[in-house]
Each structure stands twice: as structure tokens, then as C-alpha cells.
Design brief:
Blueprint (H helix, E strand, L loop, with lengths): L1 E5 L3 H12 L3 E6 L9 E2 L2 H10 L1 H9 L3 E3 L10 E5 H13 L4 E5 L2 E7 L2 E7 L2 E4 L2 E4 L16 E4 L2 E10 L12 E5 L2 E7 L4 E9 L11 H7 L15 E3 L4 E3 L3 E4 L14 E3 L5 E2 L7 H24 L6 H19 L1 H18 L12 H7 L7 H8 L12 H9 L12 H16 L1
Parallel strand pairs: 1-2, 1-10, 2-6, 10-19
Antiparallel strand pairs: 3-5, 4-5, 7-8, 8-9, 11-18, 12-15, 12-16, 12-17, 13-14, 14-15, 18-20
Helix pairs in contact: 1-4, 1-6, 2-3, 2-6, 3-4, 5-12, 6-7, 9-11
Length: 440
Amino acid sequence: MRAVVVGGGPVGMFCAMALARRGDEVTVVDRDPGPPASGPWTRPIVRQVLTDTLPDVWDAVLAAGGVEACPAGFPEAMTGLECRRSTFERAVWAGARREPRLTLRTGHADRPLTRHGRVSGVVVDGQSVDADLVIAAGGRASRFADDTRPPAEGGTCGFSYVTRMYRARPGTELASSGRPLGWLYRHYQVMVFPQDDRTLSALIVRPTADEALAPLRHNQCFEAAAPLIPELAPWIDPDRFEPITGVMAGGGLTNTYRGQLDERGRVAIPGLFFAGDAVCTTYPAAGRGVSLGLRQAQALLGMLSVLNSGLNSGLNPGRGADLRDVAERFDAWCTVNIRPWYDDHVYWDTTLLHRLGGGDIDSETRIPSDVICAAAEVDPSIWPAAGPYLAMQAPPSVLDPVRDKARAVLRSGWRPPFTAGPSRGELADAMAARQNLIAA
């Protein structure tokens, strides 16, 4: 079978390499000739999917500097990866270039082609590339085959962030916790992601509508405000850590969900499948996007493998109908296994924005997932459900049996504590003072 994968990110490249190894001739089309350089990787799902399907790629990521990390006291299955996106994708692309049946093509995928009621290829920069199968994994900004599905549900998550990368200086130990570090202050959040090669990413997250901290995107403002935040200061101490990038801003962040089917609930083009961010996007600071994308890819490839086996044995002469059936089954699978994470994020982010704006938690309504997990500090019997949820080893519904336990904790008067630190006004004043000094 000939396949085209649109998008050379983690999900697209995973699909392409797996298809090539089962014997398909695969072309990956991506606008960029190589991987970008941003973003941490920490979720256990990444390790699980790679070791199950492409174990040599996992080994290559570790050889490139990626760090296996497991939270203290957790089972081996929760071992994740601490790694920069650039390191991760460089290792994956290097593996892809070694695949004899995989071709990397730099270009813009304009639109899918059809013949006899099913996909027949892709137009790339005006030229036709034949294919029996097309997987669209071009990311959240891709418009490839946009007219084959209704618009995505959801929209902006309401958060923006700034991040800067640092490298530990000689003699400084960069400890690994096995999971991202995060602190919730009044009106903003702080996160630290240890990565490979003694590097880390330091993030400050704010509600997008709150403009007081918007100047953090400027280096001089970040340098004036960030050291005032107690939990962040040790990770950006210039005596221990050297900045290796300027401040990078992240905006336009979304929670969205989009299925495989058209507005009539039908498969528009049999043989065309969507995966990764083309199906679901979630607030990226939670680190779930790649894990959800790889989980989709693994499920889709499993369904296609069954179809491919049948075709090779001559049992499925109606390929168009079979490809339509796979799309319907994959859409149903995503509804059950991926959409709940989208729904979870929408509610989590909405209620967190309310709290950061000074609002209280209503203990008589649905308790958001982050509050349930925080309540495990008061009621440890919540943790057996919260732990698998946080590690994405179980879906959000695993929290349902302990939701009333969290409600009881809230009714006692407890609330998830904010970390003691400067207000957003104090940070804004520090940034203004630095800007005035530079202007003078």
C-alpha cells in the first residue's frame, strides 16, 4: 500500500515509520525540513507507545540525551521522558531517514485527491503524489482537507505563557523528579520542566485577559520579575543556571475536538484519516498533547493493520467500504478515549481561570479534576484514583468514584492553597521599574 502522511511532527512521523516497517511505501510531507526547537517531553505514554512499536527510536532518543524519569515511589510503567522537543524530534527524524520505504518530502500539502469515491493521493506544491492511504497529522494550524469536516468544537483555553530555557552551570546538579514541577500563585502559575543535556524550561502562565503580566515576554522584564517568585528563583539563579534562549511567548492556546466525519456524520473521503492535533488539542502546559496523539496513532495503525491483513489475503475486495468502516470505528474510538480529555481540560481551565480571578470553588457543583487531585493531600484515599489520572494511565472518569470525597474535603472549608509569593501587581511594578531604568 502507498501512504502519504501530512505532517512530520511526532504523531505523523510515528505513523509513517510504523507504516513503512509493515511494508508500505510512505511519503511524509512537511513544510519544514527538520524539527523545531522548543517544548518539554515528560509523559509516560510517550515511552510506552515507542517501546511497544518503535523501541529502537526510544533507544535513539535516550542516546541523544533524553532522560528516563519516574516519580519516587511510582511503578516503572509511569517512567516518562525529560527531553527538549528539538532533541526528541532530531532523533525521530534521524530514524525516519534510515527507513528504506520512507521518503521525506519538504513542501506544502495543498489538498487530497480522490478517485472512484476514495482517496487517491495528495497535491503537494501543485504536483500529484499517489497514495492509497492519507493520514493528516499536520498540527493545530494545518488547514489540510479542512472542508471535509465541520469546524472544531471549543476554542481558546484562556491562558498565555512565557518560557525561557536554561542550562545548569558546571558543578550544579539538575535533579529529576520524574514529573513537571508546578506552583499556583494568586493570578498566575509557574512551571519548571527539567530536560536533557542539563537543561530546563521555566514557564510563567497567566490568564490571557490579564494584561498586567504581558510584558514578561521581554527579556528585561522577565529578568526583573522572575527572580522575585520564590519557587522559580532557584531554577534561574545566574550563579547556577545560564539562559540559553531569550524569552519565548506562547499564545493562541486552545482546547478543541474534531472528529473524522463530515457534517452529515459520514466519512467524506474513505482512506483519509486525521490524527494528533487535527483531532484534539489541549492546554499545552499540562503536557498531554503528544501523549494523546500517539495514543490515537497506535489505535489507528492497529485498525489499519487488520484491514491490511485482510486485503493481502484477498478477503476484502471492497477497499473503499473497508476504509470507510475503519474511519467510523476510529472516530468512535476517539470519542470514547480522546474526547474525555478534551472535556476534562475545558472544565479544568474554565474553573481555574475563575479561581485565578479571585473566585471560589463551588463545592455543590462538579468538582474539577485538578481540585480532586489536590484534595488527595487532605484525604489520601483519593490518591489511588488521582495518581493514574495524572499519569494518564486511566481516563478522567477514574476520578468519578472519589469526586464526593473531594466534595467532603471542600465542605470542611479547605481550598487548594496558593503558594506564597509576589502579587501580579508587585511583578508588574518590578517590570515597570526595569523598563524605566532602561529608558533613562
